[in-house]
Automatic annotation (TrEMBL):
Occurrences of domain Spore coat protein U/FanG (ranges): 28-157
Signal sequence, renumbered to the chain: 1-24
Listed name of the protein: Spore coat U domain-containing protein
Keywords for this protein: Signal
Superkingdom, taxonomy of origin: Bacteria
Any coiled-coil regions, as ranges: none
Entry keyword Signal: yes
Source species of the chain: Deinococcus aquiradiocola
Length: 160
């Protein structure tokens, strides 16, 4: 008799013992599966480049900032006053130092869409996708300033 024929009855017997029908009793339990999705948001960087500024005409610029918040996460999008804010005029200003003297060009950046009412941020709802917000800027005409590169840094914040 071949070795395979001798092992066949033993193998079939073991398989029968391991099947559920051969078991005398059983018990069940549950497997709990869970995941937590936290509210989250990210915001990209943006640039407003006014190019060549002229005192007579001022300048305009456009840019885009992208926000991505998890689905249905409530959030707000705000900007601070920048590094060179002038409280008397209430204007943000680009600054350059020429010959030891600071010079300024006032400007106004605006994020498209009514994101605030009376200065209070309007809550938005996350989509889970990148949402682009157009930013436009106007550098005021009338600044009598020397040739230089003027700049400011404004912090944009997505609060959630």
């Amino acid at each position: 008799m071949s070795p395979i024929r001798r092992l066949l009855p033993l193998t079939l017997g073991l398989i029968t013992l391991c099947t559920p029908a051969a078991l005398a009793a059983s018990s069940t339990g549950t497997l709990t599966v869970q995941a937590v999705v936290a509210n989250s948001c990210t915001i990209g960087n943006a640039t407003l480049n006014f190019g060549t500024y002229t005192q007579a005409a001022g300048a305009t610029s456009a840019g885009t900032v992208t926000v991505n918040c998890s689905l249905l996460t409530p959030y707000t999008l705000t900007m601070n006053n920048g590094l060179n804010f002038e409280s008397t005029s209430g204007k943000r200003r680009m600054q350059a130092n020429v010959g030891g003297t600071d010079y300024f060009i006032p400007y106004t950046p605006v994020i498209a869409g009514a994101l605030t009412v009376g200065g209070v941020p309007i809550p938005l709802a996350g989509t889970g996708l990148d949402v682009p917000y157009a930013i436009t800027g106007i550098a005021d005409a009338g600044s009598n300033v020397p040739a230089a590169t003027y700049s400011d840094t404004v912090t944009m914040t997505v609060g959630f």
